[in-house]
Amino acid sequence: MLIYNVHMFLKRCARIYKRKIYESWWIVHAYRRKGKLKHRYIMNVTEFTPSQRKRILKLLNSPDAYLIGDMDDFFQEGRGYGQIVFFLYQMKHLGLTDILSCYLSQKSLSLILAVILNRIIKPSSKMEAVEWIKETSFPHFCPLKDKDYHANRVYEAMDELHHNLKNIMENFYRLSKEKPALLLYDVTSTYFEGRCVKKAKNGLSRDRRPDRPQVLLGLVLNEKGFPIHFEIFDGNLKDGQTLETVIRKVKRRFKIEKAIFVGDRGMISLDNIKLITGENLGYIMALRHERAKDLLREKDIEPELFDKNLPLTIFEEDGKKYVLCGSKYRREKDLYVFGQLLKKGRQALCVVERMVDEGRLKKYDKVIRRAQKKLTESGALRYFDFSYEEGGEFKIIEKKDEIERARTLCGYYILETSEKNMEDEKVEESYKKLQEVERVFRDLCQPRDKSAHFSPV
After folding, report:
1. Which of 46, 315, 432, 451 has its CA 20 to 30 A from that of 180?
2. Domain for residue 166, yes or no?
């Protein structure tokens, strides 16, 4: 697969010598130089059989045909070939190349494809990307000249892309062609160095950099894992606050009458559920851990249910059902993580206890504030408490009921869904497809080349 059409054809040449006709067959490349049509004879195929020449003709008539002038030189240079051709083919097969070619000049198209290839194969800065792409086989597949391989030309191409981005993205989303049955939605964030971006604001940081402004990135995939919406939000929004805009845009774009929204714990709220059902959509969402624990207590769910084959509907009410999901493998992992959390919480309070015992902390207000701060920072506030009387003993209190409920739920999670008639296995399977969105975000943030260093935006 190659990017640009090249005019090549099969030419029959004949000459008469001593009343006998001698014919030869050539692959010929037609091109223009200073406005005049020129022919270049590429290869003599006279020795080929008629059926072989017919197949060659079919290949030359392909809009994806491309000319490599010197094959010996091409392979002797040892340039990367397989990955470049594979991903160029995938972009062409997907329809991405055709969409970009409708809005970008040929030079900008080549440079944008080069940047995409660099991002997939060997992520790096724009300047490094230009040097890298020159050492691959890519220059053989595009009309760029040596002077075009420059970072400034890449930025010019990106400006052209940005100017047409809305139309390009709309056409890209419609490549899925079918109305989506599932709307798999998740949100991540990226932080900034600098303060020039209007949407970049301080908020809940996944990168543990609350001191830096950030933006939220929202992505919707359909059930086949194809992107059908992407949006950038202000960095100070909560995940659930992004939902209204996304739902309405996707529904309008595809004229959706019935679909199921699938979201993670950060999306579930009464307002969002009302919004989703008000748009005549179904939903599957995971309960937050605390809500799941409260539910087990309120509904007096028997622990024996956790030993049965899962997934399993544990109860239904108000037109929705709750499905218990999980596995032994997941339980072992979650128990370890939970154990580390309890250890961290106890150690935080032990620091305060030791300071009190050594007389470094005495005043009631200071002891309480220090203990509260340490416990909050540990993330184990729900599972520990403490008591202290001025001049007395500092005591660490374990909330045993809370710990036991949390330990019971380790390895398990509860899904809330409006689809009461959907099989439990199908509910769980649909929710697990959210992993596709998480994988996309993971690939964005963690390059395959682990030696590559990435700064924030």
Report:
1. 315
2. yes
- The reply to whether 318 and 399 lie within a common domain is no
Q: Which of 35-44, 232-241, 337-346 has the lowest mean pLDDT?
A: 35-44
d(CA 254, CA 165): 19
Q: Can you say whether residue 253 is alpha, beta or left, with left for phi > 0 and alpha for psi between -120 and 50 degrees?
A: alpha
Query: How many angstroms separate the CA atoms of 457 and 192, rounded?
Result: 5
From residue 164, give the alpha-carbon distance in Å to each of 4, 102, 158, 160, 290: 21, 10, 10, 7, 45
Does residue 20 sit in the same domain as residue 139?
Answer: no
- pLDDT, average across residues 349-353: 92
The reply to whether 280 and 156 lie within a common domain is no
C-alpha Rg value of the chain to the nearest Å: 31
One domain for residues 419 and 401? no
- pTM across the whole model: 0.71
Nearest partner of 456 among 219, 231, 200, 240, judged by Cα: 200
Average pLDDT over residues 114-143: 87
Look up residue 174 and give its DSSP letter: G
Confidence (pLDDT) at 8:
76
Same domain for 51 and 85? no
Residues 339 and 314 in one domain: no
Is residue 98 domain-resident?
yes
User: 382-387: which pairs have CB atoms within 8 A and are 24 or more residues apart?
Assistant: 382/290, 382/406, 383/341, 383/342, 383/345, 384/345, 384/346, 384/349, 386/349, 386/352
Residue at 369 is within a domain: yes
Domain identity same for 203 and 290:
yes
**Over the chain, what is the mean pLDDT?**
84
pLDDT tens for each residue of 230-267: 999 988 888 888 888 899 999 988 888 899 999 888 78
Instruction: Give the CA angle between residues 199, 201, 204 to the nearest 5°.
Output: 125
Range of the domain at 161: 81-170
Same domain, 390 and 275: no
